[in-house]
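Hi R.,

Here's the input for the zinc ion complex you asked about:
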Amino acid sequence: MQIPFRKIHEAPKPFQLEEGGVECIGTFWRSGKDKIAIEGRLKGETLFTCDRCAKSYKASIDESFSLEAVDRPVKVEESLDMVECLDGIVDFDSICRSEIASIQSEYHLCPECEERDDFEIEL
Ligand SMILES: [Zn+2]
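And here is the predicted structure with zinc ion in place:
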């Protein structure tokens, strides 16, 4: 789903899309002259890579996110929750993809390694 920046108004609008088995539902609205606010929730199943044994495993995610899209270059000192839309298009698919990727890049253990962790704690 792609929406031109200039067509986004102050009244919040809903969006819903799916990205590789993860549903992304939320709202977006114009929060300033060159700013769009996006709030959403990711829900579904996706593949993670275990940080201990490097095995891929499927797990469910259910995470909320909120970010701002701007149609100008983002400065380094600005918030990490800011995305550039330099071509004047807000690309919701790529926003959801990168939100999912950032969840996947967090520290994760597969169920077996997590169990082993509990076991070590009991000792
Ligand atoms: Zn593991």
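One thing worth noting: The mean pLDDT is 91.

Cheers,
M.
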